[in-house]
Amino acid sequence: METCFVPDFLILSVVTGSRAYGLETAASDVDRRGVFTAPTPLFWRLDKPPTHVEGPEAEQFSWEVERFCALALEANPTVLECLWSPLVEHVTPAGEDLLSIRRAFLSRRARRTFSGYADAQFRRLDPERPKWKQAMHMIRLMLSGLHLVREGEPLVRVGEHRDRLLALRRGEIPWAEVERWRAGLLADFESLGEAGALPETPDRQTVDDYLAAVRRASL
């Protein structure tokens, strides 16, 4: 039943993961993330619409628009990167409106969430038996967050970092060098302090106005 919300009410679908980052291999999956809008009258019942749906395709995950906006306001790295994915597969007028306000979700909280998520990944790595793919994504997340703090948008397509990140994924970079790379990125985060391109708080009013418009349109 829940899968009927996707694709029937899908307003945005993007490709994320390695293919969006420019780090894919021939074996890479196609990771899809989306946003759907449940019809407004469904919220008038005791049983509410789902906040998220897995499927119907493999590696597909979608959030109901209100849940998506709440996560974006909390500077969730996965959600924010969806708004800057270079690979948009499906978008409706409501999805275009969502993309047009993507900067309203940004705040200095992203500095903590991006570095914090990366630190959590690092702590799960065993230096004696490192999972190189996980190490690569840890560094990639730090690069994305640092670019966000400096430039006001996450670095999704890795560009000039691609070759070194792929070398890391193949296990061609010694662990000591990985630790130095991580330490250097952490130092860059710390050196910025409260400076950078991000506002102190997100623009919640713009997001509220967007959600209200979506709910009215879905009556």
Textual characterization of the structure:
This protein is α+β, with helices and mostly antiparallel strands. It has 2 domains: 2-106 and 202-217, Beta Polymerase, domain 2 (2-Layer Sandwich), CATH 3.30.460; 109-192, no CATH class. It is 49% helix and 11% strand. It has 10 helices and 5 strands; from the N terminus they run H-E-H-E-E-E-H-H-E-H-H-H-H-H-H. It has helices at 5-8, 17-21, 65-73, 77-83, 93-100, 109-123, 132-151, 162-169, 175-192, 204-217, and strands at 10-16, 31-36, 52-54, 60-64, 88-91. It has a 5-stranded mixed sheet. Strand 3 (52-54) and strand 4 (60-64) form a beta hairpin. The longest helix is centred in the middle third of the chain and has 20 residues, at 132-151. The protein is globular, with a radius of gyration of 18 Å.
Question: Brief description of this entry?
Answer:
The protein is an alpha+beta fold and 219 residues long. It contains ten helices and five strands; from the N terminus they run αβαβββααβαααααα.
Total of DSSP H or I helical runs spanning 4+ residues: 10
> Regions with pLDDT < 50 over 5+ consecutive residues?
none
CATH topology of the largest domain: Beta Polymerase, domain 2
What separation lies between the terminal Cα atoms?
20 Å
User: Largest sheet, order of strands side by side?
Assistant: 3-4-2-1-5
**Mean of pLDDT:** 95
Give the helix/strand class. alpha+beta
In total, the number of domains comes to 2
Q: Work out the strand percent.
A: 5-15%
* Main pleated sheet: 5 strands, mixed
What level of helicity do the residues show? Answer: 40-55%
* CATH architecture classification name of the largest domain: 2-Layer Sandwich
Could you tell me the number of beta strands?
A: 5
CATH class categorisation of the largest domain: Alpha Beta
- Overall shape: it is globular
Round the Cα radius of gyration to an integer and report it: 18 Å
Question: Which series of helices and strands comes N to C?
Answer: HEHEEEHHEHHHHHH
Protein name: Nucleotidyltransferase
Organism: Planobispora longispora
Pfam families: RlaP (PF10127)
InterPro entries: RlaP
